[in-house]
Design a protein that fits this description.
The protein has one domain (6-77). It is built from 4 helices and 2 strands. By secondary structure, it is mainly α. α1 links the parallel β1 (6-7) and β2.
Length: 81
Amino acid sequence: MRKAVVATPLSLEGLHLREEKHVIAADGPEHFASAVINLVEDPNRVAQLGRNGQTFVRTEYSWKTSACQLESILADLVVPA
């Protein structure tokens, strides 16, 4: 699903998303509403954010990426004989 996202900075912590490329960060009700209105008025920006966000999620949070990260963590836990 290609969706443009407006979120609070707090909700984005730790996700490694780039503001204005993958997501719009908006703090406070006025800023949040303004960001949403700007997106409603700019369908090209909505499409761009949607594509960028989808690519990011597919790359960073795919099953393959997650499995590789888990494998690396588990390998670090194994004590060589």
